[in-house]
Write a structure and sequence with these properties.
Radius of gyration: 23 Å
Bound molecules: heme C
Number of strands: 0
Shape: globular
Number of domains: 2
Distance between the termini: 66 Å
Strand content: under 5%
């Protein structure tokens, strides 16, 4: 095949060739990216940038660290969406963090996290609010409908009253449950 013809948009075959190449590259690229994305979605991946941040130790010390229930909840379980498309989208947003990572002075240090904790926590909370705490509900399914006998009375009452409201007026999980994995800063 003549390579120049491939790049000449007026040639009939070159346009078809371009579309075919485009589709093949797109499909291969999509699956390749899915694979890498899954490979990168481990705590270790998150901690490469959040290296000296106490985030993982905090999770381990919390109820989500496996102490009582024996289940260690991973960063991605709470912070990344489950649908493949949402997953890509959030990952693309996360990759914006590459820019922050390169430009924020001293990002990796604990001092930076301590100083910026409130702002970062509120950004994270905004995301939970935007999808009605979907990640929380993914594990804690039907928290309002099927309350186990072992659930504290206070919890049952709060959940029941919230569920009685019209869906738009309900609070979302993180409105009441802040700091379930990291200490939520007071100020
Ligand atoms: C490329 C480096 C990098 C990687 C990898 C990374 N982060 Fe971050 N992360 C950052 C930076 C930089 C910020 C601060 C962004 C800002 O405020 O501009 C941040 C902020 C956050 C925040 C708070 C702000 C928000 O938007 O919610 C959360 C939550 C977070 N990261 C979770 C994660 C999780 C979970 C992973 C693993 C899936 C991860 N990060 C992987 C660099 C990274
Ligand atoms: C991967 C599954 C998983 C995800 C995701 C998850 N949890 Fe949990 N959660 C657990 C397990 C396991 C426990 C410990 C056993 C128990 O108490 O049920 C727990 C315990 C809790 C508790 C009781 C202990 C405490 O800290 O007071 C609350 C409240 C809670 N989770 C809220 C949340 C919220 C809010 C989110 C979303 C930000 C969330 N969970 C995300 C699995 C999960
Ligand atoms: C209106 C406030 C409110 C909302 C909204 C709310 N909770 Fe709770 N929840 C509470 C209170 C109060 C308790 C009891 C104190 C505690 O354990 O933190 C509780 C307790 C819990 C517990 C521990 C129950 C036990 O076994 O004793 C879990 C798990 C939990 N909530 C999950 C959730 C999830 C998931 C959501 C979102 C679907 C949610 N909650 C929404 C107020 C709320
Ligand atoms: C059980 C769910 C859960 C797990 C597991 C979890 N997070 Fe979070 N994370 C949250 C919530 C909820 C917030 C919002 C602030 C709050 O409530 O404390 C948050 C906030 C953050 C923030 C903003 C700063 C802060 O401390 O509030 C960063 C950064 C972050 N998480 C990174 C991580 C990393 C990295 C991991 C894995 C080592 C992880 N998270 C594991 C639920 C979780």
């Amino acid at each position: 095949m003549n390579w120049r013809a491939l790049f000449k948009p007026s040639a009939k075959y070159s346009i078809i060739a371009l579309i075919v190449v485009g589709v093949v590259v797109g499909v291969v690229g999509y699956f390749a990216t899915q694979q890498t994305l899954h490979a990168t979605s481990s705590d270790a991946f998150c901690m490469t940038c959040h290296r000296d941040h106490s985030l993982r130790d905090e999770v381990m010390a919390s109820a989500h660290g496996g102490g009582s229930a024996g289940v260690t909840v991973q960063c991605q379980d709470c912070h990344l969406p489950h649908g493949p498309f949402d997953y890509l989208l959030k990952k693309i947003i996360v990759t914006k963090d590459i820019y922050g990572f390169l430009t924020i002075d001293g990002f990796m240090t604990q001092e930076w996290l301590d100083e910026n904790r409130k702002e970062q926590a509120d950004k994270a909370l905004a995301h939970f609010r935007s999808n009605d705490s979907a990640n929380c509900r993914h594990c804690h399914t039907r928290i309002y409908e099927d309350q186990p006998d072992t659930m504290k009375r206070m919890a049952k009452m709060m959940h029941k009253n919230n569920f009685k409201k019209a869906p738009d007026d309900r609070k979302t999980c993180v409105d009441c449950h802040k700091g379930v994995a990291h200490p939520y800063p007071k100020s």
